[in-house]
Structure formats: C-alpha cells, structure tokens
Amino acid sequence: MTRLVPRKPVPSLEVPTLDGEVWRLSEQSPAKFTMIVFYRGRHCPVCKLYLEDVTKKLGDLAARGVETIAMSTDDEDRARETAADWALDGLKIGYGLSVDKAREWGLYVSSSRGKTSLGIEEPALFNEPGFFLVRPDGTLYWSIVQTMPFLRPHFAELVAVLDKIEQMDYPARGEA
User: Is 4 contained in some domain?
Assistant: First the structure.
C-alpha cells in the first residue's frame, strides 16, 4: 500500500463523472483545496449519510475555496442510482475508480460480504473511505484513510477548521 506524504505530490487521478466529463485532478484550479471524498459505494448506508452531509456543506466549502468531488469504484449505473436516490444535488460524482488506483492513493480495499442493510449487494472489491485535501499545486495537505465505514469527519466541523487553517496559515503536517 502506498503512503502519501504531506507537502509532496499526490498520484494522478482521473475518473469519468455523472455530468459526462472526465475529471482530472491535474486540471483542477481551486482557490485553496481540491477535496476528494472516496466513498465505499452505493451499498454503504454510512456513505449515504456522509455524502448527504457534504452536499449540504458545498456552498460553505466553495466559499472557502474548496472544490469537491466524491468518487468510488462503483460503475456508472450504480453511481447514477446513488446520486438520484441519495439527494446529492450539486455534488460532483466520479465513478469507475480502479482498485489499483485506490491502492495507489493508500486506500484500503475490501471484498464483498453479500448484501448490506440497504439490501444492496457489495461489489466483489471496493475501496474503503478516504478524505483528501490537495493544494492547487498538487501536493497533499490533509488525508484521512479508514479501514471501516464508521466515524468519518463531519463537514460542519471541517468548515470551521478551514477558517482556522486560513487564519493561522497552518502548515500541512506529518511529513517527517
């Protein structure tokens, strides 16, 4: 598994999106950060709550110079069902993340255990959650990588933290 290092370049990242475009990290130009939210997929009830939460905060994040995308290893059909059923209006959704690319980003990968509490079959392999803030120069500022779907960052708290980061000119940490 890859270990990404703050203040160092992150791997390339390119996924198709539900709006018919190909999203490339290298082409992003946020004022402050690109926020990449890797979610487990349509089968995950915790992801539903998480993506609904980030969708509610998109305006606050954008006001702080953060461009946001959520993505998973789900195929296009599952991603479209996710966006429609989970009320994710305004959230850019990428799909088709390869397991190899997920691992390159340091994400954990799980295998299917059958149907979840949503009654949806897990894919054969899928990424576990990850959260990344990437500077406009393509270097890592902040990351959270998880082995389980539970206890993810709350986006209201993130908005407040972004204000503190700005006020304090807080540097990326963990590079040693």
Answer: no
pLDDT tens digits for 36-61? 999 999 999 999 999 999 999 999 99
| 169 Ramachandran zone, left/alpha/beta (phi>0; psi -120 to 50) | left
What the block records as the tokens of 161 is 């933290």
Which two structure tokens, joined as six digits, stand for 111?
């295998």
Residue 144 lies in a domain: yes
Q: By C-alpha distance, which of 102, 84, 149 is closest to 122? A: 149
Residues in Cβ contact with 25 at an 8 Å cutoff, skipping those fewer than 6 apart = 10, 12, 13, 14, 34, 36, 134, 138
pLDDT tens digit sequence for 129-144: 999 999 999 999 999 9
153 domain residue, yes or no: yes
Give the CATH number of the domain where residue 86 resides.
3.40.30.10
Q: Residue 24 is encoded by which pair of tokens?
A: 């490339």
- Contact in structure between 91 and 68 (CB atoms under 8 Å): yes
- Does the pTM surpass 0.85? The reply is yes
Residues of the chain short of pLDDT 70, as ranges, are 1
- CA of 158: how far to CAs of 10, 24, 61, 83, 110, in Å? 21, 24, 9, 23, 27
* Structural domain total, the chain: 1
Residue 41 lies in a domain: yes
